[in-house]
Fold these 4 entries.
Entry 1:
Amino acid sequence: MKLLLDENLSDRIAAKIADLFPGSSHVKSEGLIHADDAHIWEFARLNSFTLVSKDADFHQRSLLFGQPPRLVFLRTGNGPTGFVVELLRRNSILISEFHQDADAAILILPPAHSSAPG
């Protein structure tokens, strides 16, 4: 499973999670910086990415349109890149299980150690 990190996340994260999520990328690396949400959503769908974002607009889009693409929604607020890396690494099994659930569209990862599928 490969993740597409939204522009509200550091582009350095992709390299730091590549061992767990090979093929992951950032919108900047895909030429999508400042692209509108619909374009990013479609790119993720067409290229089999799971989108990772803190943007509530993607959460709403996922509720409206479902998957694909799937969305990992981070409810972390602003914080250091290392915190996001640790959150994704700590929840890698949960993210993989989410990806394997044919009906799941949104996984919400709160900042706490517990995680709840959405």
Entry 2:
Amino acid sequence: MARFLWICLGGAAGTGARYLLAGWVQRAAGPGFPYGTLAVNLIGSFALGVLMVIGLQTELMSPTVRLAVTTGAMGGFTTYSTFSYETLGLIQQGAWGSAALNIGVTLTACLAASFLGLAVGRWLVGMA
């Protein structure tokens, strides 16, 4: 149960960091493109790569700290980092087809799910 609470605490910190960083970048760069989200996804993908190497290949982090920082903080910061890390894992294993499938399905299905969510939301509030 303690591990779960540490992951939740990390998630809250990551979510707060995402909100602050994305907002700051977006204000600095202007409204023409989602620069804040792009910055969060790039930083999160880089940071998760570094943290996973440190957490899995050294003894600098206990398993609980690794989970609190990766699953918790980085998961709250951006789930795109996990997508990137897992896709690279498939590529490193030589599973190029699975990696391409993950990219294609994630992109297509998530966009479709967002479209469907918008439609259902509009229907629910009587805007359909």
Entry 3:
Amino acid sequence: MLFWPVYGPTFLISAGQGAILPIIPLVARDLEASLALAGLIAAFRGFGNNIFDIPAGMIAGRFGEKLSMIFAGVILIISALFAVVAMHLVELSVVWALVCFSCTIFTLGAASSLWQVARLIFVTQVCPENQRGRGISLVGGFTRAGRFVGPLLAAICYGFYGLESAFFIFAIFIFLSLILVVRYVQNTGTADERESSSIGEIVTVLKSYRTVFGRVGVAVILLAVARHSRDIFWPLWGSEIGLNAQEISVIMGLAYAVDTVPFYFAGVVMDKFGRKAAAVPCLFILSITAFGLIFTDTFLEMLIICLISGFGNGLGSGIVMTIGADLSPIRGRGEFLGAWRLIGDTGQSGGQLMLGPIAALTSLGAAIGGVGILGLCGVIVFIFIAPEPQAFHKLKSRK
């Protein structure tokens, strides 16, 4: 039964993240950051993911999933509280406020990486291979359900307590998730397996799977660009067309609600027809709606485009985690999944980092259109270049 050790904590953490994601670039703007700098600061979360993905795999491989999740949760709570402190530093110095806020967003990303790697190791170990698509798609489904609840709850609080209330909501949800982890999560590996984690193990895994990372990884990077850039360009575009924080949070919350609808269907498709059968339509819809967004200029128009995008994203619920689980070896699984998350997070942070500078040099609409173009390139890579992960793994096993 995975509800209490996996799905419950996943929902709570995602609800907390959903509360803060819409307002990170908005807080940066309130701290007098430019449009480009606000986009860069928001991307620091993805950058923290990138920097810490491989160390997260080593830590989880060495100390086990449970202790890793607990440590990550504590760091997340502390970082959220420091973000509130940083917001008040603007009264003393705008520069220091922006620097401190950027550091807390970076730390949130690093701690999230450790949590997610440890969770993925746990799910991969306990899910039977023939049910893995459905099992992991449920992780994606509960993630999306949390992303629906978080922004809507935060939108209510913004009007009464200001943007900083989102970080308190985040801290509360993380604390509740830690209670479930402490009570229900048990390590799946043996002590001997955990002691084997090392830099040498990382190097061995990277060499053995360089073809996987080179072919399937490119497709995953482009999917991550299209998927995660929305966390930044949705709030920025909403602000560009004159929407306030509450309206933007409502749009994102409803989009994440629609995101939850097809998640079980996505798992069935992955298990019956292969991982690419879910990835291709997901990425195609994300790409088309990115183009569509730049033609919106009202609340209702933006809401419709974001709802369609949310449904498309839901078709790929858990796809990156499932592909990583398919390809991961039994020995060195933590190291592999840490490297795998680095690939996905490279797309996440890379897409987010490019939005601000491109928007500053051209326009926000051009930056969003660029994301759509990259997404269509990803569709081509998935169809013609990336092999089906299950077949690729079986071929490698025979060798």
Entry 4:
Amino acid sequence: MNRTLPGAALIALISSAAVADDAVVGNETLFQSPNGTTERCVQIAPMPGARYSEAALATEALYCGIDLYAPTIGLCPKTWSTSPAMVIHDLSSGPFVGDREGFEATACVEGKDAKRSSGGEIVRIKPSMNDPRTSGTFSQSPLLYYHLSRFLGADVGVPPAVWRSMDRAMHLEEIAQPGVEIAQVRGSGPMMQAAWEIFVAAHANPDSYVPTDDVFVADRSAIYGTMLRNRGDDYGPEINGTSDADWGIEVYSAFQQTAPYLALRSDRPLAEAVAEGVAVAITDPQIAEAMGTDPNPRQIVFWMADLANVAVLDFVLNQQDRFGNIDYVDRWYWSEDGQLMSASKNAFDLASGNLPQGAMPLQRTHINDNDAGIRPEYHNFARESGMLDNLRHFPAGTYRQLMALDADLKVQVPLHAYLGTSFGLSEAAFGNLVANVALAADTLRAQCLAGTMQFDLDPAAFILSGAVAPGVIDCANP
């Protein structure tokens, strides 16, 4: 449902100092625009100690193989919701095969529905945009979410992302100027309209956007952003809570009254904590209607693990715009030879009866909209609302990796150098990240040392046996 953030209240302070630049490090693919401008696509170097699936690495390579000017590619400005982006469409099939100009002139005005006239949306490029008149986005944020989630072992869906630049003049011609015109035609709302107008002005005079380095490469020949693609459908009140507010502490407080979050704070053993969380949450009629009064306990345990990981990532990465930007995908889960197996919801033809015995549908959380983090000016609502306070159940693997990251950043060894140099972050932004990691680690370590935290959030074990024995961890040196 993507909440609409109030523009003027979104950013506490807009500084003239750049928070990022184009000095990102990784495997580069170079392209030439029709104007002869060199464009870069960068697969950020893998984070030491992180685990990346083959599918994620293949997705990175796919994105960096896209030539923005190929005849099989069509580009549209994103003119719905609140933040601007470039939508890249596949023109190898559909009514505009090979007709890039016709597609962009005819289909893009349809907004989201432009994909009906193409072979589908491939990916988006999302730039930074921070102005009192607009929603707030920061292009380096999704890159950090991707790599840190793989380091922390946070088993929650965070989309692969790569860094991409585009010829400034071509972006003006094919994206920014049409963005203004289409937003006017579609009545896209004041924040979206303002964003595209700001981009048009910045193309004419890059110094008019402050800080310029957050949006343009060093020689001002190109604009840059992050390539990624979202997956999933919107959760309802069962995860996002029941607050009517669009943004702020009230939303985060309501989120912490949902069944999985209440269970995270229960002192009882895992199965009893699930029952307690459900019993309290369904006293809210909206949650009871959305979740049902007798949800599958296995689903609640998955949600608990997912949201514990979301809380850590959002705390560390200074996220100010999470709820309702939490999505889900449906998957099948079943036991086979004592192992938990999983497949996408479309993996089986139910009519043919080939569903594995005992397979159950469960929702897995995805966080796709991760572009309002890192900047020191942003509100860290995970911290301000105490999302890591008083947790009684937590994934052991996430705890160990967070402590390892904190220890590394304190002595400034490989991870400190990697995070400080790979993402084009300013000293202020990197310092903010280091401070957040330290505070998150201190918060969770204190609960561990107090003996109040159970390391029993293992959804696979719970699904297979219905119970999990809490793990034993050395809190200070896990």
